[in-house]
């Protein structure tokens, strides 16, 4: 299983995303089992956010991990821009912690930029860290200018990760942002790592992806995940409400793509040759 550093913690390179989970009573039990199955298979990172179902995802995660050793887990949560201020962040964080059933999160992300000055958000994140309510902090949906601005702020260089959309069909960040993050030693958290909607179908049904999958006796989903984490500094957080699929996702961390595999995929899904707008969903 591939691992990477998030701050001072080593974690598996495949985690569990929870976007769109917790919204339906009909699927709740199966979704909880999916999270637990993923943990049993070797994942210990769970990614959620206050925005996901207005706290319903956090509550689902809390139920799923209630009987699991907290020290084994690495919980990622996110604060909305409207709550990323000095007078609102702690209250919202306390609400998230209550829903999760824990007294701290391992990584707290500023979900995307809003009206609150970035310096104020960073100062408040650092305060939450000092209080022990978060172990580390980071950002999400930041492009290169945002990251450079962040690192120019006092304490900004303590950012533990940046979470952006990244998959084989959306490689725009490879042009400038991802190389810069590698130089700075800032890990990437890849959300939507197997794409979404119609785009997902286009990827998993593409002949090149299927051919590489056959070589590795793997599923197309697993190849897309193995591709996303290939650089050793990326955490992928696929979402699945199906226990078997969640286990298969985690097992993708065992796959190492060869140079020939990567060349075949690059031919069909080439690297960007110019700056692209940041892909946000």
- How many domains, as an integer? 1
CATH level-4 homologous superfamily = NADP-dependent oxidoreductase domain
**C-alpha termini separation:** 28 Å
> Which stretches of 5+ consecutive residues score pLDDT under 50?
none
Radius of gyration: 18 Å
Structural class from helices and strands? alpha/beta
Number of strands: 10
Pattern of helices and strands = EEEHEHEHEHEHEHEHHHEHH
Q: What summary fits the major beta sheet?
A: 8 strands, parallel
| Name of the CATH first level | Alpha Beta
CATH architecture: Alpha-Beta Barrel
Bin the helical content: 25-40%
Q: What is the strand arrangement across the widest sheet?
A: 3-4-5-6-7-8-9-10
Tally of helical segments = 11
Could you please say which CATH topology applies here?
TIM Barrel
Give the integer mean of the pLDDT values: 97
Strand content: 5-15%
Description of the molecule:
The protein is of the alpha/beta class. It has one domain (3-268): NADP-dependent oxidoreductase domain (TIM Barrel, Alpha-Beta Barrel). 38% of the residues lie in helices and 14% in strands. The protein is built from eleven helices and ten strands. The chain has helices at residues 28-40, 56-64, 89-100, 118-130, 144-151, 177-184, 197-204, 207-215, 220-228, 243-251, 259-268; strands spanning 3-6, 9-12, 16-17, 45-47, 74-79, 107-110, 137-140, 162-165, 188-191, 234-236. The longest helix is centred in the first third of the chain and has 13 residues, at 28-40. The protein is globular and about 55 Å long. The model has no long low-confidence stretch (mean pLDDT 97).
């Amino acid at each position: 299983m591939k691992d990477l550093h998030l701050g001072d913690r080593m974690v598996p390179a495949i985690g569990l995303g929870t976007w769109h989970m917790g919204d339906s009573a009909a699927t709740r039990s199966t979704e909880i089992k999916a999270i637990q199955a993923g943990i049993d298979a070797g994942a210990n990172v769970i990614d959620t956010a206050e925005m996901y179902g207005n706290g319903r995802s956090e509550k689902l995660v809390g139920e799923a991990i209630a009987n699991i050793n907290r020290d084994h887990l690495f919980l990622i949560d996110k604060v909305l821009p409207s709550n990323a201020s000095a007078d609102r962040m702690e209250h919202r964080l306390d609400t998230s912690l209550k829903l999760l059933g824990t007294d701290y999160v391992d990584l707290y992300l500023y979900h995307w930029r809003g009206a609150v000055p970035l310096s104020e958000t960073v100062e408040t994140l650092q305060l939450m860290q000092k209080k022990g309510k978060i172990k580390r902090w980071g950002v999400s949906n930041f492009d290169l200018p945002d990251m450079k601005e962040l690192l120019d702020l006092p304490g900004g260089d303590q950012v533990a990760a940046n979470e952006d959309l990244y998959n084989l069909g959306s490689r725009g960040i490879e042009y400038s942002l991802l190389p810069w993050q590698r130089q700075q030693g800032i890990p990437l958290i890849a959300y939507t790592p197997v794409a979404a909607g119609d785009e997902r179908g286009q990827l998993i049904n593409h002949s090149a992806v299927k051919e590489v999958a056959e070589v590795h006796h793997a599923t197309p989903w697993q190849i897309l995940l193995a591709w996303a984490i290939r650089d050793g500094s990326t955490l992928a957080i696929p979402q699945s409400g199906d226990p078997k699929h969640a286990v298969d996702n985690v097992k993708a961390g065992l796959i190492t793509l060869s140079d020939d595999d990567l060349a075949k995929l690059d031919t069909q899904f080439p690297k960007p040759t110019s700056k692209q707008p940041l892909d946000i969903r």
